[in-house]
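Weekly modeling sync, notes
Attendees: S.R. (lead), two postdocs, one rotation student

Agenda item 3: backlog of single-chain predictions. S.R. asked that every request posted to the team notebook include the full sequence so nobody has to chase files. The rotation student volunteered to paste the first one in as an example of the format we agreed on. Action items at the bottom.

Example entry:
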Amino acid sequence: MTLLERLQNLNPELKLYSVRDAAFKKYGRLIEDYDSAALCKACREALTMPKSGSVYFPALDALTGTADDLLMTRRFFGQTPAQTGVCYGYNSLFNALEYHRSSEINVAVTPLVLMLGDMRDMNGYDYDSGRVEAFLLEEGDTVEVYATSLHYCPCQVSDEGFISVVGLPRGTNTDLTEKPAAEGEDRLLFAANKWIVCHEDCRELTGQGVYPGIHGLNYELKY
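Predicted structure, as returned to the notebook:
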């Protein structure tokens, strides 16, 4: 039994696919002509897994200035300023969805699952969790997640946790320079170039003022 088949059997309530399936084309594309081996090796050597929870760095010092970091600017972001960061740790819950005004590049240093939604399925600033679809990335897979795709923290598929490289326009996910308005889309703006809604049951994020716009089941990925 493959990892995908095992995850599908354990999570029958979740629409779960591989990024190689046609269902992923709605949300992004698999970048098959990029060798991520050196990037993955650098991350494994630079990172120590946290005791619990997940950690995110918009730009990882160990990657800054490397050939893979420059590739983010030169190829993946069309010679515009970009950053090569990392998200890693432990997570199994859906919890939230965010979006940017640009694509995001993800490199799976470890196998992981992304839970994705489509902005066009939002009702104003609310979202029915029953519309979410999950996609397995195998170790080394590199994908572009489109700007119209809602996404959040990856989910682990083993007790060892997950590591994902995150490429974005420079400055994304850093602190805001001014307080956004408390109405309209501005109420979702949580960091630079980062709009987010969370599940109404996610106390950690609602406690930080994130709009509780996701309703329905807060999926937990079983592995």
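Discussion: group reviewed the output briefly. The longest helix spans residues 37-46.
Action items: rotation student to repeat for the remaining queue; S.R. to check formatting next week.
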